[in-house]
């Protein structure tokens, strides 16, 4: 025979549910009563109660006229990051996009080392969104500055990801990189140059609008020397690097640079053609296709200018193209 349900237990559970529901209703009534009053101290006490219970979103949803005053008071009293984050969210929710953008920009620039680089990315990205939605011309004017900071932060992140953290010194450097956004000069002199991060150096030059022949040529030569094997082999990485190199505005706007990279391209392709027998048919066809892509690109660049030297290189590229086509088929 099945046992009868324990009526007393069911009654107790039902009673508890009713009491919890009544408490929730009473709590909502108290909150509603306080938020509809003009007692600023009561509002502040309510906000603190909400924060203690991790109900910060209720503050933003409360429509209280004292939210901004409360948060700014707590911030001025040194309460910390939590209140700053709440304040910009309040500004955004209230449609005060200019204030939100300004505060987010300040947060991204904050020297507090506990704010990670990824968090600063988030602040900057949101600042741009708010600035675009704002009406103040001053806020609109800062959009490009914010984008520039994002670009610098990307470079800093790239350096951080390149660092080897096996030694205490490297760990300290990574910790430094995962904090305030550093200047391009610091990133270049303290990280990119000493650690041979050549492509990062190029990114820094580009970000700084520095198109000076000597440093750029030196960096590219370092890249090519580190990837070019002089044993009759062709590095696929080098071929990809050549593609990247021709996308750099400095090379497309500088005849000496164009000539240099085209001559390197010819040397790479010629090295491959001379050692083609070392590769399997599949490898040979694959590398030949990559080489041919480079050759076609260089040929188009050579025809786009009136330089006699580059036109001579174009004829050389045409001959290489025929050999590569035969090899890849």
TrEMBL record:
Name recorded for this polypeptide: Nucleoporin Nup133/Nup155-like C-terminal domain-containing protein
UniProt entry tagged with the keyword Transport: yes
Family: Belongs to the non-repetitive/WGA-negative nucleoporin family.
Primary location class: nucleus
Gene Ontology CC terms, in alphabetical order: nuclear pore inner ring
Ranges where the Nucleoporin Nup133/Nup155-like C-terminal domain occurs: 14-231
Taxonomy, superkingdom: Eukaryota
Molecular function terms, GO-annotated: structural constituent of nuclear pore
InterPro entries according to UniProt: Nucleoporin_Nup133/Nup155_C (IPR007187), Nucleoporin_Nup155 (IPR004870), Nucleoporin_Nup155_C_2 (IPR042537)
Subcellular localization(s) per the UniProt record: Nucleus
Pfam families given in the database record: Nucleoporin_C
Gene3D superfamilies: 1.20.120.1050, Nucleoporin, helical domain, central subdomain
Keyword terms, alphabetized: Nucleus, Transport
Species of provenance: Ancylostoma duodenale
Biological process terms in GO annotation: protein import into nucleus; protein localization to nuclear inner membrane; RNA export from nucleus; transcription-dependent tethering of RNA polymerase II gene DNA at nuclear periphery
Keyword Ribonucleoprotein: no
């Amino acid at each position: 025979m099945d046992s009868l349900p324990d009526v007393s237990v069911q009654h107790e559970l039902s009673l508890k549910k009713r009491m919890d529901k009544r408490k929730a209703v009473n709590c909502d009534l108290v909150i509603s009563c306080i938020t509809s009053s003009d007692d600023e101290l009561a509002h502040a006490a309510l906000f603190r109660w909400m924060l203690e219970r991790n109900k910060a979103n209720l503050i933003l949803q409360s429509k209280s006229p004292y939210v901004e005053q409360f948060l700014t008071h707590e911030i001025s009293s040194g309460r910390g990051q939590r209140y700053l984050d709440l304040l910009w969210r309040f500004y955004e929710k209230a449609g005060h996009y200019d204030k939100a953008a300004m505060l987010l920009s300040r947060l991204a620039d904050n020297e507090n080392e506990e704010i990670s680089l990824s968090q600063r990315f988030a602040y900057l990205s949101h600042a741009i969104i708010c600035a675009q939605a704002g009406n103040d011309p001053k806020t609109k004017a800062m959009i490009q500055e914010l984008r520039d900071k994002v670009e610098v932060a990307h470079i800093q992140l790239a350096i951080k990801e390149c660092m080897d953290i096996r030694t205490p010194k490297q760990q300290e450097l990574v910790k430094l990189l995962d904090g305030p956004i550093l200047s391009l000069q610091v990133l270049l002199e303290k990280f990119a140059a000493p650690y041979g991060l050549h492509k990062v150096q190029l990114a820094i030059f580009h970000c700084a609008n520095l198109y000076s022949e000597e440093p750029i040529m030196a960096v590219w030569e370092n890249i090519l020397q580190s990837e070019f094997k002089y044993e009759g082999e062709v590095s696929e990485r080098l071929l990809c690097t050549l593609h990247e190199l021709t996308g750099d505005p400095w090379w497309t706007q500088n005849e000496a640079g164009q000539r240099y990279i085209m001559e390197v391209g010819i040397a790479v392709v010629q090295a491959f053609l001379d050692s083609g027998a070392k590769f399997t048919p599949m490898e040979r066809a694959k590398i030949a296709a990559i080489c041919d892509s480079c050759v076609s690109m260089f040929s188009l660049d050579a025809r786009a200018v009136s330089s006699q030297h580059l036109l001579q290189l174009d004829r050389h590229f045409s001959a290489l193209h025929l050999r590569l086509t035969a090899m890849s088929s």
